[in-house]
Write a structure and sequence with these properties.
The chain is globular and about 50 Å long. The chain has one domain. 74% of the residues lie in helices and 0% in strands. The N and C termini lie far apart (50 Å). The protein has helices at residues 3-29, 38-52, 58-67, 76-83, 85-95, 103-124, 129-151, 166-183, 190-199, 207-229, 234-255, 261-284. The longest helix is centred in the first third of the chain and has 27 residues, at 3-29. The chain contains twelve helices and no strands. It is an all-alpha fold and 287 residues long. Helix 4 packs across helix 10 and helix 5 packs parallel to helix 11.
């Protein structure tokens, strides 16, 4: 491993440890149940499985939470960032060390995403219910459109570069900062990050260590802030943590690849439905 990868895994281990400590501290201070439920475990296993195959997990998880009324709307962003953190760490462990890209680009993009998440979580964790509903509704609509464009091959396929320089390097780093901040609202980073890097001329496979490394580091960092403000569903989060690791293992070591086109169409339908349901709830909400 190169120096950037070693540094990343040290930072990842430290952030995961601090997340665990924050979770234990928050659990001791509050009456919320940390008992796993079968429904949330099923969601965590399924969406982490899809995440490992490159579809993403935030939008499908939000859609399923909304569809089956599993988590209160205002608690979804925190539940996503805390509950899917372990899966993100597992995915990054697999992909960051197995795909070689420019170490400077890897370190800069992951660091900027983590910084964006730290700042973004501080804002989102204090937003009122209606603002979160509107934000997540718009985010889900964007996600559905991106999924549709990817499925219909309407977006660029990428070039052959494994490194960026000059203004392209700056764009990648700056954009990942914004994507890290938006992820705390429930907007997944995978698809927009992959599209951005393709537009900049990078190989599609080069997006995997960047997007998975970014998510793995930013989710524990954002999760610490959500735990501090208690804006999450503790039961759903522990359920997703336990089952998500199972989903990652199945996807990475057993299934490895699937014909995903029809599955993407199903995800588009579910996410679009959840987007309209979230916006409808926002319209009815007064707080």
């Amino acid at each position: 491993m190169n120096a950037a990868q070693i540094g990343f895994f040290i930072a990842l281990g430290v952030s995961a440890l601090f997340l665990a400590m924050a979770w234990v501290r928050a659990a001791r201070l509050g009456p919320e149940s940390n008992r796993p439920t079968l429904g949330a475990m099923a969601v965590g296993a399924l969406t982490s499985f899809l995440d490992t195959l490159g579809i993403g997990s935030f939008a499908p998880t939000t859609a399923l939470f909304k569809l089956f009324h599993m988590v209160k709307d205002e608690l979804i962003p925190g539940t996503l960032n805390v509950g899917l953190a372990a899966s993100g760490v597992a995915e990054a462990t697999i992909f960051v060390k197995s795909i070689e890209i420019d170490p400077a680009l890897l370190a800069a993009t992951i660091s900027s995403a983590a910084l964006g998440a730290w700042l973004g979580a501080g804002v989102v964790s204090r937003l009122p219910r209606r603002a979160i509903q509107i934000g997540m509704g718009v985010a889900l609509l964007i996600a559905a459109c991106v999924f549709a464009a990817v499925t219909r091959h309407m977006l660029p396929g990428g070039g052959d570069a494994l490194a960026l320089s000059g203004w392209k390097f700056g764009v990648a780093v700056g954009a990942n900062f914004v994507l890290g901040a938006l992820m705390t609202l429930g907007i997944g980073l995978y698809a927009p990050c992959m599209i951005l890097l393709a537009l900049l001329g990078m190989q599609p496979i080069a997006a995997f260590p960047i997007m998975m490394g970014s998510c793995a580091l930013l989710q524990p960092i954002a999760g610490i802030k959500f735990l501090a403000t208690r804006r999450l569903d503790f039961s759903a989060a522990i359920s997703m943590t336990l089952a998500g690791l199972f989903g990652v293992g199945i996807a990475a070591f057993i299934v490895k690849s699937l014909p995903l086109e029809w599955l993407r169409y199903l995800v588009i339908i579910v996410v679009a439905y959840a987007a309209f349901a979230m916006l409808r709830s926002a319209r009815r909400s007064t707080t």
